[in-house]
Design a protein that fits this description.
The chain is mainly α. It is built from 13 helices and two strands. It has a single domain, classed as MetI-like (MetI-like fold, Orthogonal Bundle).
């Protein structure tokens, strides 16, 4: 039996649950629904409407991109030291600490977000501590900070895991060689460890940025409807306005932006790899 036959189930899965949905989204995006059915009489009307309405949707899109960028940046600054610590140490409690990082991912996404609400609401744990210290209650729910916290809490493991894998697979002999040549720990990190961990960083950035830029559950629950992101707009078009055509156009537009960002990251990673190969 040819090895290519084993790819059959995967190919069938991709066709049914990836290719077909994208095709249907594309068809809805380039059609406009009239009183009877979908028609192509204004094929790109949905796309042009994204840039209309005095730039309302573009403002929401820019807010989503900005918040996703902040979330990705904070996750990188928090996740890299954590991954570096776990990958550079061999200790008895390594598995315990690693499980603690994975533990939130074992729970449902909505459950984690509702747990965050229990921390941030007016009668939540944080405000209970604040009032017990004699201070006034804080209005945390419905703010930008609450949404950003929820995104970081949910997506931080997706930054830690790929960086940890990249650091764990690193050839330690390269680091030992740099140390034998007289490089101090800081120089070893910037010249050896950090460049070799770039693939993990690129993967982590991709895995955090993509879901955070399109999220809607976090902004809906922790933002209390006061902080709308592009994911909320898309969800509202499908579930409330019943405008699948415009919702598909927004989804297709976001897909194009995400693919563009992935392409840029891959080019950056390829450039880094070529530089490293030239040095070696």
């Amino acid at each position: 039996m040819k090895r290519s036959y084993f790819s059959g189930p995967y190919a069938l899965w991709m066709i049914l649950f990836t290719i077909f949905p994208i095709v249907f989204v594309g068809l809805y995006a380039i059609t406009v629904r009239n009183e009877t059915a979908n028609s192509l009489y204004a094929g790109l009307k949905n796309i042009s409407e994204i840039f209309a309405n005095k730039g309302t949707y573009m403002k929401v899109l820019w807010r989503s991109i900005t918040l996703a960028f902040e979330c990705t940046l904070i996750c990188l600054f928090l996740g890299y030291p954590c991954a570096y610590f776990l990958a550079s140490k061999e200790f008895a409690k390594y598995k315990t600490l690693f499980v603690l990082i994975l533990l939130p991912m074992w729970m449902n996404f909505l459950l984690r977000t509702y747990a965050s609400m229990g921390l941030l609401e007016r009668n939540g744990i944080i405000n209970t501590i604040v009032t017990s210290l004699g201070f006034e209650r804080l209005d945390l729910i419905g703010t930008r900070g609450a949404v950003l916290y929820g995104m970081i809490y949910n997506y931080l493991p997706f930054m830690v895991l790929p960086i940890h894998t990249s650091l764990k697979k690193m050839d330690r002999r390269v680091i030992e060689a740099a140390q034998d040549l007289g490089a101090n720990p800081l120089r070893v990190f910037y010249k050896v460890t950090l460049p070799l961990s770039v693939p993990g960083i690129i993967s982590g950035i991709t895995m955090v940025f993509m879901p955070s830029v399109t999220t809607f559950a976090i902004s809906g629950l922790l933002g209390s409807g006061n902080f709308m992101l592009i994911g909320d707009v898309i969800e509202a078009q499908f579930m409330q306005a019943n405008n699948w055509n415009f919702g598909s156009a927004l989804s297709l537009f976001m897909t194009a932006l995400i693919l563009l960002s992935i392409g840029l990251l891959n080019r950056l990673d390829a450039g880094k790899n070529s530089e490293r190969s030239e040095k070696w």
